[in-house]
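Repro:
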Amino acid sequence: MEQYELDLLAKYCKDDEELKTLWDAHIMFGKQLERYENKHYLTPSEELEVKDLKKRTLANKTRMHAVLDTYKAKEGK
């Protein structure tokens, strides 16, 4: 994420519950994926979990960027 987007997050997360929820989920998904990335071997069920986490991460990130885009437009950037 670019610094400008991180600045927008810091500015608007306080008042925008959806944005805060999306950001918190983004952090949580990253930590969960990191836990699997540190393993040398994944079981088939863990591989499915990683695929699911990646899909959820992408959907979450897409929505978060859509919300941020509204704030960018509001600020004229």
